[in-house]
Write a structure and sequence with these properties.
Elements: E1 2-6, H1 14-23, H2 25-30, E2 33-34, H3 46-52, H4 64-74, E3 79-83, H5 87-90, H6 94-101, E4 110-116, H7 121-134, H8 142-149, H9 158-166, E5 170-173, H10 178-183, H11 185-192
Parallel strand pairs: 1-3, 1-4, 2-3, 4-5
Length: about 220
């Protein structure tokens, strides 16, 4: 059994992918893909990946890793699919990367593929600023926001190549563009992991309009 992880970044259709995975767990399992239960109503596996990395999580969410282990033991599947933007931050840490990508334990399959949707950085910053301002999470001027964002290591994508090479994982990059939005990010994700989107009727999921605000 292997694992497939979608690693973000933020504002690149990840919420749509997670919602699709959550709503189609049963159908995906028939195709041999196990999607763990999510502690997030939108489908993200944020607390699960934190626990797998050994990070502290709230008391009421500490069963995520145990449920994951039981699901792997009981399910008949070829691969596990995990999706969380949190991995965009966690995998920068060498110890976290080793725990997530290089595990050969029966309770946690080794990660064979990392899927992400890189986005033009200027569009990413514009979209992210729109989101944090409208949610009242930040209040600084746009220029100050940009200067802070571009210094963050996750603003660049080259480190994913080195990470994938270091742990012998396949890196699958699907550019997040206007065309991706038009076709739907969920179908693009399914094609990336060799699943025919035509098997599903609800692939055109749009959960976060802030992600494509820059195009309109």
């Amino acid at each position: 059994m292997s694992a497939i992880s979608t690693i973000g970044p933020h504002k690149s259709g990840t919420t749509s992918i997670q919602w699709f995975l959550k709503e189609n767990r049963a159908a995906l399992l028939k195709d041999g893909y196990l999607v763990p239960e999510s502690e997030d109503f939108r489908g993200g596996h944020h607390q699960l990946v934190r626990q797998l990395c050994g990070r502290a999580v709230p008391q009421h969410q500490r069963e995520a890793a145990a449920r994951f282990a039981r699901a792997i033991k009981d399910a008949k599947c070829e691969a596990v699919v995990i999706s969380s933007e949190t991995l965009d931050d966690l995998l920068v840490n060498e110890d976290c990367a080793r725990r997530i990508l290089w595990s050969n334990r029966r309770t946690q399959p080794r990660t064979e593929a990392l899927v992400f949707f890189p986005r033009n950085q200027s569009q990413f910053v514009n979209s992210r600023y729109t989101e944090v301002i409208k949610c009242f999470h930040r209040s600084e001027p746009f220029e100050a926001f940009v200067q802070a964002e571009i210094r963050h290591p996750n603003f660049r994508y080259a480190h994913w190549i080195a990470l994938a090479n270091a742990f012998s994982s396949k890196l699958i990059a699907q550019p997040f563009t206007e065309e991706t939005i038009t076709r739907g990010v969920a179908p693009e994700f399914l094609r990336a992991i060799d699943i025919d989107p035509s098997h599903f009727h609800d692939t055109n999921v749009r959960r976060n309009r802030g992600a494509d605000a820059i195009y309109y």
